[in-house]
């Protein structure tokens, strides 16, 4: 499947991939906790001590969702999909360090590139939606995941929501988070400028729920929150 050169994957070049692990943990207070809880939510939904194949969309960077799920459920296997080669390379380094390459199939590309008749027990979409400009690409990726899930299979969706400028207090708290980690005033302003120009989050929690419903998922359960970030579990509607 062809994709325009303006794809958000272009933002995740080698330079960004190299800094992703540190930057993401600063930008998201509770980064590891969110991934750990995502694994717990999927295990609670699927049941423990069973085999499962999990589709991990946007797996590049830290591969933290795979690491967390694999530690909790040793019989699960993973299909990791990401359109950024540098980010996938970074993820593969982490998977190799955790001895997980034999449990993970790596696909450079998009969900739509996977076979239409693929059938997964669960899926994750963490840190992706807010990088897609406009509602239609968000619907498209959710629908592409939905069609490749088994009936009633769970999906974890996590990412930023709210238009950033609409929440000035949260935005200023985000600035303080960077300052807390040692960034200078100029660096903080540069970070905020990049954030305001570089993403298009759903504008509310209701918008996230609407996108999930339109893509064929049932009611979503929110289980994590951190400033602009939220995480939900929803299941494929019957």
From TrEMBL:
Keywords: Methyltransferase, Transferase. GO terms for molecular function: methyltransferase activity. One of its GO terms (biological process) is methylation. Residues 60-153 form the Methyltransferase type domain. Its EC number is 2.1.1.-. SUPFAM superfamilies: S-adenosyl-L-methionine-dependent methyltransferases. The keyword Amino-acid biosynthesis does not apply. It holds the Pfam family Methyltransf_12. Transmembrane segments: none annotated. This is Class I SAM-dependent methyltransferase.
